[in-house]
Amino acid sequence: xxxxxxxxxxxxxxxxxxxxxxxxxxxxxxxxxxxxxxxxxxxxxxxxxxxxxxxxxxxxxxxxxxxxxxxxxxxxxxxxxxxxxxxxxxxxxxxxxxxxxxxxxxxxxxxxxxxxxxxxxxxxxxxxxxxxxxxxxxxxxxxxxxxxxxxxxxxxxxxxxxxxxxxxxxxxxxxxxxxxxxxxxxxxxxxxxxxxxxxxxxxxxxxxxxxxxxxxxxxxxxxxxxxxxxxxxxxxxxxxxxxxxxxxxxxxxxxxx
Length: 257
Prior knowledge:
This protein is of the alpha+beta class.
């Protein structure tokens, strides 16, 4: 719904109908909520600025501002610094097994969603002392550092920061597609991994990249993946949106109980 259609629709719904009760800002908030629930205002849609909407509807600017604030408090709208007010991007929560090793791309494709990667930074250099220890490398063996924003159907879901020895990939590894597909193509498919999950909040920079509020909850997942011969092939730190993922594990009672 474009700006003109929105104004027409709001006017047609009788914000000043004397049969309605409650302050104008509540009526406006309820009407916008109805448009969102009916699917007429899609997630990510930009709304007019307070002044523009107030002038178009012949309302006070404070009325529009208060309605917007109410809807932001409820999560229906979100404010993006320097960009304006938008219908919140609703995320369908996904369950991710803790016991299955798969790439982000493969996981999204299995759900019928289109995976994508946006490269945030890419560099080939020497590993840090911690990385040398984790990856079992000498200090002068080069690694690929690949920071990417992972998306599904265009929606940002995770920031992935991977460190992979160049000897397993080659200097020409791109980074736009699945890293695991690239490793498999080079004959270095990961077969097992150790993952550690930590609940964190997002710093302003990461939150802006993921298009959520600063301080929003996230899951930090640190993963060390190995080849069949036990060599470490990947060390990755990923921040997953807390509103998008539930990580689940099947538990079985022990024989000694």
